[in-house]
């Protein structure tokens, strides 16, 4: 797509060529002019290869290949076209194709395999897009694929009659050619299968969300520089009260009402208080990079309006979620690109040297605890690399006690009730509320119009100004919109 990618692929000795697409290399949103034009470039490239007589594997740039898929394709020698799907629960058996009902679900052309016999379909696909300047490439191809879609007679391989009976095709099993959601649900592992690919589709926060999800799951190769930082890293134990876990698990109201999402927000807000303090502490201790927690959710976030459950989703509530479910990573990448890391950051082999240079800050549970630092002088770690810190320190005390530790350690890890570590005065609260206001995403959705509800890092601070520029009066309540 661009010269930068071309040069990187050449360095890796991967046969490649320059498309000279003349499209922007910046992130462009869905259904923009550039998005529509990219679909036309993609279709023209597919036609070029089929014209030359080559079978063609199409893979979007946000798809990751985990093993060689061609042995799978060779099992279906009569298939003219195989397309991936956004289906969540697979209908396939073992390593077979999705059945007819599965193929009628949303197809996704981010991964597809075509043989030269599919050229006529591709030519009509291109012609249809030329006649409709706003036509979406995926919708146009899906329409052709599904024309008089039916089971192909006298076949045992699961191939379907597609394109008005002119071709044979099928939907690739979502358990093997995974979407963002089907991989998250573990469809492959439950069937004892190893996926061929993962396509980062259905993920919030645009490219930032996709990149984060790939990093969380170990599918993104980072340069060594990501595991260094001018200051260091801050991590903490995310405390999730068992009573809130049980409340979500036992809650029977799965309606689209505000009442139906209350246990979810109680669970989330408890964790957001801790996240707020961690982000403030990281900034105050010289601008360290905060390692995000693996947050627990009580409702499945939906990319379409719903009751908090993906259609077909099998998640048991509550569940641990990727960061893009709750945070606006696109906004964060714009404002603080080097001030946070994904929750799995310290679990990676490259982070092993960091873990060998870690000091643990134990947050004392009561003012009367003995041997706890006041914050009136730099804390001296004990022989086991721990520091005991009194709760509710002001920012001066926090900096005094801990900021020097990054001269000796690469990670400062907080243990205990993170939300009790510091106390902000009104001026500091206003400053950090303004700084962080855009970093959280929204839950979608309740039956209101609009139905999304934004998360709020300062939900428990009465009198703060929320993202709607309204003063929060009294206890926080879920509010849809704007």
UniProtKB/TrEMBL annotation:
One function term, GO molecular function aspect: arabinosyltransferase activity
Protein's membrane topology: Single-pass type II membrane protein
InterPro entries, sorted: Glycosyltransferase_77, Nucl-diP-sugar_transferase, Nucleotide-diphossugar_trans
Record-listed E.C. numbers: 2.4.2.-
Coiled-coil ranges from the UniProt annotation: none
UniProt-listed GO biological process terms: cell wall pectin biosynthetic process
Protein origin, superkingdom: Eukaryota
PANTHER family per UniProt: ARABINOSYLTRANSFERASE XEG113
Protein's name according to its UniProt entry: Glycosyltransferase
The organism of origin for this protein: Auxenochlorella protothecoides
């Amino acid at each position: 797509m661009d010269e930068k990618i071309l040069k990187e692929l050449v360095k890796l000795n991967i046969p490649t060529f320059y498309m000279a697409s003349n499209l922007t290399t910046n992130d462009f949103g869905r259904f923009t002019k550039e998005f529509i034009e990219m679909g036309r470039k993609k279709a023209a490239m597919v036609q070029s290869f089929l014209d030359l007589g080559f079978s063609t594997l199409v893979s979007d740039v946000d798809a990751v290949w985990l093993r060689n898929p061609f042995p799978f394709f060779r099992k279906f020698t009569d298939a003219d076209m195989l397309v991936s799907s956004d289906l969540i629960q697979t209908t396939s058996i073992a390593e077979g194709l999705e059945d007819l009902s599965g193929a009628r679900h949303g197809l996704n052309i981010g991964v597809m395999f075509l043989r030269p016999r599919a050229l006529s379909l591709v030519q009509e696909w291109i012609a249809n897009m030329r006649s409709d300047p706003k036509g979406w490439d995926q919708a146009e191809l899906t329409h052709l694929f599904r024309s008089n879609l039916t089971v192909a007679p006298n076949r045992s391989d699961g191939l379907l009659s597609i394109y008005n009976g002119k071709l044979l095709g099928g939907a690739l099993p979502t358990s093997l050619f995974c979407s963002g959601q089907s991989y998250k649900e573990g469809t492959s592992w439950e069937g004892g299968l190893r996926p061929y690919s993962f396509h980062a589709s259905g993920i919030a926060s645009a490219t930032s969300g996709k990149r984060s999800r790939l990093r969380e799951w170990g599918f993104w190769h980072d340069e060594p520089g990501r595991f260094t930082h001018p200051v260091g890293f801050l991590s903490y134990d995310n405390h999730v009260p068992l009573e809130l876990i049980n409340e979500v698990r036992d809650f029977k109201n799965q309606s689209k009402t505000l009442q139906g999402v209350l246990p979810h927000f109680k669970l989330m807000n408890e964790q957001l208080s801790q996240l707020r303090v961690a982000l403030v502490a990281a900034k105050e201790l010289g601008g360290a990079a905060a390692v995000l927690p693996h947050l627990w959710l009580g409702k499945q976030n939906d990319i379409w309006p719903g009751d908090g459950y993906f259609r077909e989703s099998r998640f048991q509530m509550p569940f641990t979620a990727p960061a893009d479910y709750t945070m606006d990573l696109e906004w964060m990448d714009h404002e603080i690109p080097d001030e946070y890391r994904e929750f799995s950051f310290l679990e990676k082999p490259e982070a092993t040297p960091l873990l060998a240079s870690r000091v643990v800050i134990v947050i004392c549970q009561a003012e009367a605890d003995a041997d706890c630092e006041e914050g009136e002088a730099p804390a001296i770690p004990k022989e086991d690399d721990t520091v005991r810190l009194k709760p509710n320190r002001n920012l001066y005390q926090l900096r005094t006690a801990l900021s020097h530790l990054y001269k000796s350690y690469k990670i400062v890890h907080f243990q205990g009730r993170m939300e009790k570590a510091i106390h902000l005065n009104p001026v500091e609260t206003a400053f950090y509320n303004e700084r962080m206001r855009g970093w959280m995403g929204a839950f979608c959705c309740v039956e209101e119009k609009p139905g999304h509800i934004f998360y709020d890092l300062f939900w428990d601070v009465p009198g703060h100004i929320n993202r709607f520029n309204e003063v929060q009066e009294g206890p926080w309540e879920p509010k849809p919109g704007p």
